[in-house]
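User: Can you help me understand a structure? I only have the sequence.
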Amino acid sequence: MRISSYHRPTIAFLCVAPGLSHIFCHAKGHHKSPSHKHPVPRARVSEPLHTRKTNTGAKCTALTISLDVSASNTQLSLRPPESQAELTSLISRFFSTSENVTAQVVGGPKTVSGTYDIWSELCVPNPFDDGGEVQLLVHGIPFDHTYWSFADAVSSAAGGTRRLDINQAYNFIDAAHKAGRATLAYDRLGVGKSSTPEGINVVQATTEVEIAYGMTQLLSGGLAGYRFGRVVGVGHSFGSIQLIGLAAQYPHAVDALVLTGFTANGTARPMAFSGFGTTIAAEQDPTRFDDLPKSYVTTQAASNDEFSAVFEQHVRTKSTFTLGEFFTLRAPLAEPARKFKGPVYLMAGAKARPPPSLHPE
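Assistant: Let's start by predicting it. Here is the structure, written out as C-alpha cells:
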C-alpha cells in the first residue's frame, strides 16, 4: 500500500491537480478480479428517480440501489438513550479514564443480514469515454451526499437563483467532471434518503464496508447503461475509514484510493466528539429527524459544526450518525490492507479541526 501526501487546503482540486495524475487518474484497472472471501452482495437498481444536468454539462441520474448485505458486526449491549442527559453521560463515561465503558458494552461478533436501500446519484460528464473512470464518493460524519457538491446545495437552497463564489471550490463533483471522471455519490446507510434501520447493532462501520463493496461491484459491472474501466474510492473522514476497511477485506474492489480528512492517529477522538456536542437527532431537529430512533445522533448546534467557508450550507444539510457507528468507528482499521496494491493518496486539510496530525479518524 503506497501512501503519498498532499497539502492543498481543499479537496475540490483532487482529481484535476497535476500531482494526482500519476496517482490514480491513470491507474491501471485490476478490480475485475474480486476477492472471493465473501459473496458479492446482490443488488437491484431502481428506475431513475430523476435526472438533472450539472453546471459542467454532466448528466446526473438519481437511483435507489437495494443491496442484500451480510456483515460481521459487533454485539453491543446497549439500549437507546431515553434522554439527552443519558446520552451525554454515556459519551462522557466512554472517554473517562476511570471507567471502561467499552468493556461493559462491546461483546463478540454478530452476523447482521438485511436488504437496505441506498440513495445514489450517478453523474457522467459529456463526453465520456466508454470504459472510463468512475469515482465512488463516501462521505463522513455528519454529512450526506451533498458534502461533495456544496455549491449545488447553495443553488438549490436559494431556488436556483444564486451561487456563492466561495463555494465553487467546494464542489468536488464538478471538478471530477471537468477532468472527465464520472462520480457515484451516495447517502451512507442511516443517512439522508437511504434506509435508516436499527442504529446500534445494525448501522455499524462494518455494515457500511459491505455496502461500499456492493457499490464497487455494481460499478465494475456497469450501471445505468455506462461501462467503467476503473473504480477509484474517494473518502472523507469516516468515509476514508470505510474505504481502508474495503481495501483490507476486498483488495481488488477498487483500483486506487483517495483518503481525505483522515489519519490513523486516534488520540484526538475525545476532543472531536466533545466538540460535536453529540445530541439525540430527533430532539436536536424534530422537523428533519423526528422519525428516527434515539440511537441516531447528530451535532448539537451551529457552533459545533466545523466548515467555516460553507457554514450555512453545512448547518442546513448536516445529517446523523448512530451509536453503533460511534462504538465501531475504527473497526475497519483492525487489519492493515497489506494485499491492496493500488496507489493511495492521503490528504489532510490545513484548516481541519482538530489539526490533521490529531484528526480523530
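Now, to help you interpret it: The longest helix spans residues 205-220. The chain is about 25% helix and 25% strand. Let me know which part you'd like to focus on.
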